[in-house]
Hints:
By secondary structure, the chain is α/β, with parallel strands linked by helices. It folds into 5 domains: 20-187, 3-Layer(aba) Sandwich (Rossmann fold), CATH 3.40.50.300; 193-274, no CATH class; 279-388, no CATH class; 399-617, Aminopeptidase (3-Layer(aba) Sandwich); 655-720, Orthogonal Bundle (Arc Repressor Mutant, subunit A), CATH 1.10.10. It has 33 helices and 18 strands. Strands 10-13-14-15-16-18-17 form a 7-stranded mixed β-sheet, sandwiched between helices. The longest helix has 25 residues, at 347-371. The radius of gyration is 27 Å and the shape is globular. The protein starts with a helix and ends in an 8-residue tail after the last helix. Mean pLDDT is 77; it is low at 100-108, 230-264 and 623-658.
Amino acid sequence: MSGTMGERLARLMDDHFVGRAFELGYFADWLAGAGERAERLLNVYGPAGMGKSYLLRQYAGIARQAGCAAAEVQIRDALEGRDAFVRRLLAALGDEAAPLASGDVDAPGRSSLEERCLAAIGELDRAGGCVLLLDGCESLGSLDHWLRESFFPRLPGRCFIVMAGRRPLEGAWLALPAWRRLIVRLPLRELSYDEIRTYLERWGVADEAAIDGVWLRTKGHPLALSLLAPEGPAPVRVAERQRGPDWREPAAQPDADHMPGTSALEQVWEAWLAEVADEALLQALYAASVVRTFNLETLGELTGGTLSPSAFAELCRLSFVSRSGGGWQLQEFVWEHLRVRLRETMPQTYARLEARAAAYYRRQIEAELQSGRGLGSAWSELLRHAGNPVLRAHYRHAADAGSQWEPMHAGTLGEALRYIARRRQGTRDWKVVCGDPDSGAMFRFALPQTITQRRLAHLDPERLHALAPGAVRLLRDRDGRVAGIAAIVPIDGRTLGELSALPVSRAYFAAWPEDKKRALAADPDRTEGWYVYAMDAETLERDDLRSAMLQPLLELAATGALLVESPPPHAYYRLSKRSLGFVEVPEAAHADYGLGEPAATYELDTRGDGMRAFLRRTGAWAGEAADDSPDDGVPTARAAVDVPSEPFASPERTAEQHKQPEPLTPREHEVARRLVIGETNAQIGASLFISEAAVKKHVNAMLSKYGLRNRTQLAAKLLEDGIESSGH
């Protein structure tokens, strides 16, 4: 093989694209016919492990060979905001952006950073063309609306966009015929048997039985295939795999590791682990599965300083590890699989690594808060590793709900009114089930329509839109239908009078001192906070819509803001508000919902030191120090550990549960703070350095004091009573 090292690498990379000839050829033809095609956005989608990121890298190479500039951007998290996205895009364009000064805005809603980015794209487009490649678009959040309605329409007419994600662009992207005309959908599928045969033959594997074995175990999943025949000196390594686990066997027999019903992808596990023969590397791999993005410093913190630079270098060379904007990442399918494996087989190790990860991100956040430069990715990372079961259950899916919020405008007012009318006609009560996959904690609520419809009783979208354009938001599902509505009104000098007069919100502002009202009225450009006047979905029985309800609240909280909300009086709303760190405002209770029971008003204030308090109340900022004592690193035992499942029950109280419980002892308080964040008895014992039997004794004592039947009910009761999860 002649030519430069780069040319040789390019040819080897092409060998990985068996079965992707159509996708590559289509993109090349698309660029070549730039002046003749109306389509400008190529939407690549498919489940985790389908090779979307790899395909986008190939697209970037094709574009550059055609004389176009190519900018690759990984969407990390919408909570980081527009400026973080624009900075990454500028860096991908070769322009490292300086920090944006406060108030550096050229036009309403447009920063000078955004203008600078558009100017850079315009220059590259005139010089030969420009292609923007956005990966991970399932995490766009509110960036989705901004890109579609503001940023993309201002791009040069010849600019090409590739957006890759787990699902196709849906919802609002389909609502307008113009966008449908500009978009080409390109689904990625599993590889066929013939494509797998071609792939393996290129790596020197021609044994029919071996090819059959690989096909049976991967079912054409590209990632599973790459784990069985990884990169590197492939013919040698595949041959070695053939001499180890015999891929020529038609199917794996059930045993301790491969139980009946185990999928082909799960059967890849042992072959995958064979690539990680060194124990130090295995420890590093398990630690890497606890965080989403890592570097040597991150894993050093998690392993107690036992990870050597050489072990880290070996980890980064694994076939399923790739470089990302903030460090390195395990491929998403691998990451999810490893987390489950670690949590199920080594729960104490998992709990210890989670605690260390949370402590690491807390220190980063502390430094960011002290510097005043704003919160970075550590904020959203911390919420993935901490929090109570309710927060974890919702946040896990918030960026991947498939629905997107957009501001209502005059043209969509009719849709908003029809949605409200449709919801008011509903008669079926809801049975809402919330579950936290990490802890197994589950909650069941009966939500009568007479309760949920009260959130819309006083909502006048036209009036609120006139008061504060953009305050009313519509939630569009994957089909472009309006599936929810929210009214999040800025609290400023222009809205204060109206909010002080409207039902529901008036109770809160009646408690404000007059001098505070006068000060805000005198400075109408200052926003004191946000009043969540209404937030409704067509059904809260759906996980994705419940998750979507969380997204706008977290995005505002991440900026450091005051949020005020007063939902109807019901256990579901009380638990959700307290689980999200809201604090009750006793003097702002009211009867405006007309339900015969006062409705509470809640505040969430993340301004200044309020961010620490918020993280503490959600269990993300534990007062107790993580286990920083030196040990032998991550245990290497691979035996399965049974974790008892919890009964499935309702948090509704019986008459006996209304009695005043005996006070909790100090040790029961410690156990309670960990129980409400979903830790098992083994995890609690490991955290507090006591036996599982002792933990069980304390849990049973608390159940007896509260008159409850199981720990799920106990967790709900503790959260309702305001216990600070993992805090002091």
